[in-house]
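During the no-cost extension, the postdoctoral fellow (Dr. R.K.) reprocessed legacy sequence entries with the updated structure-token encoder. One reprocessed record is reproduced below for audit purposes.
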Amino acid sequence: MPGVVVAVLAALAAAAPAAAQGADTTAVVREGPGLAPGAVALRDGPAPRAPTGRAEGQAAVTPATSWCGDVRATDDVEHGRTTLRRFKVLYLHPSDRPNRLTGAIADRIQQTVSAIAGKYAQGSSGTLGVRFDYGTRCGPEFVDITSLRTTRATSAYAGGGDSRPDAIKTDVLAARASVLGLDRGRWDFLIFADLPVTGSYAEAHAEKVPDLRADPRVNSNAVRDNHMALLYADAFDGTESDEYTAYTATHEVTHTFGAVQPGAPDATGGWHCNDGVSLMCYADGSPGSAFDPTVCPVGQPAPFGAIPLDCGQDNYFNPSPAAGTWLADNWNVARHPAVCPASLCLASTIEPVAAATVADGPRVAGSPVRFDASGSGDRDGTIVRFDWDVDGDGTAEQSTTTPTLDVVPRRAGRVGGGSVTVLDDLGLTASAPLAAVEVAGRPPAMALAAPAPAPTGTPVLLDASASADPDEGGRIVRYRFTLGDGQVVEQAAPQLRWTPTRPGRFEVRVAGVDEDGLSGEAAVAVEALNRPPALRPRVPARPAANDELVLRAGATDDDGRVTQVRWDLGRGVRRSGEAVRVAFPATGRRTVRVTATDDLGAVTTQQIVLELVRGPLRAVRRSRRGALVLTVGCPRRDRACRLRADVGGRRLTAAVPRGAVRRIRTSLPARLRSRAVRITLRDRRSGRRLASVVSPAPRT
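Re-encoded structure tokens follow.
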């Protein structure tokens, strides 16, 4: 923010320079020894009220009137009473001057801090105070004074203008974290600088506040800290009265709160007011500083306890401004973050400490991701609530009284990245970030319905329609079926018809792939039933007795192989094979059965009925001595038959009139008499076979 340097001199310094507007970020206020007249009792106003409820930690705390504690170079965190916006009291001395923080000076600092709080209590009917860093090893009623020995000598602070306060501010900020231990929290400073300064006993670094919104807590200037109220040696080492020390310190602290704004009623050009006796009103020598002592007169000399914090409460401080007034709508010191309820100013108000981790566990959608804030703590109270802004949008999605939160992601993506805010029993909060974790999606949950057993060659429906992607908004985009015959079919549809070609129990698998490339799988057993062999017998169209017939089974097996074909030719005659040759000696009906067996033992039997007719070869008779008699007939009706019989290498002929029967006689050679002999009867003219039969050897 652009700043302003304001020079405020004592009542006798009427010729002091006016407020110089420029690019500086602070206003430096200088006060002289005549600023606070009188020497009346230090604490005429009401003392700060004791904290109540959980905030007091133990019993009510009343500030001590003398100081006790260790002279420390670092902040006393162990005994600190608060972590809220507060003033750190510093005793500062240059490297070439001794540390005089003992006895009277330490007691005067303790009393001055109490007087500042008392003045704010007085101006608010006992309701408000100023928050300082209290607590030493001696107890909570003692202000924590931190001693800072700078690296500069006294001469380094002897420059005029803003060089001295700027040098002090530079030294304090440089030491704040690394030396003073003030690396956490929001701090402003009340500095007792043990420097010999002539004519300017006090100064303040304050902020110019062009944004005059009523509540400093929402004004960007109030967010800034490191404001400094400076008192030099003559203001606190006994050179001036305790009354002067208290008044000067309160005045400078109020400057750091932004008083008095240039736009406020009765404001001077030097960050003061001129409408009567008030803490911040007097003729500061700037334009518009015509001081009117008749408003809120308290007499001269004016005791500190009698001087109002804000005469009429219309310039810079009013705890309850009426609607429409300037302080209701603009900058009001009563709302500054370091101005506290009197009951809480010395209370134990340690902010909780928030900490959060992500517990180990599966990082997959559908499985809880546990955010754990059990590492959070509250030094002086109890954490009563955890507000979880998991997604980091600034709004807590859930509040719990326990330190863990299970978030069940519904699909793949990022979970976390927000924060958890812990609330203690005093209403104080702290936040910690929630780590973001990447959550993988879940694979599709696949389901494959098992079809009923069916014979091979029958299409079966493989149905994965009941499969689903469990992630929110997820879908299965591809199905891959691995069939029992090794075939793989990939498609977008969840159903497939498959025709098993061989019997057995097969595992069929389906894999589903979702939009994220994740896959799931299911499997079922598909039972393909064995089909028995098929028989398609083939026999002569007009079988004749005494003629060798070839009977063919026509056995096939579409889902395996035929391992055996058996024939039952009747009268105890059985044969095996796909085809058999057989001759029946008599005409008439003859029943034959054929049976096929496959490689799995399935059997098919078929019955064949043969109607045997009379053929050219009517009978065959043999004797053991080799005599052979063939009875032949002529089946033709148009002319005689000229027949030839082939018997054991011999050819016998016969002419048979149409419709007549003749006998052909021969004697078999000795070598054939005990052997089966094939007899073939042919038409002598065409050579066409008319009959063929094997004559068995005669029985002995």
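Confidence is low (pLDDT under 50) at residues 1-59. Helices lie at 103-123, 163-176, 220-223, 233-236, 242-256, 326-329. The remaining legacy entries will be reprocessed before the final report is submitted.
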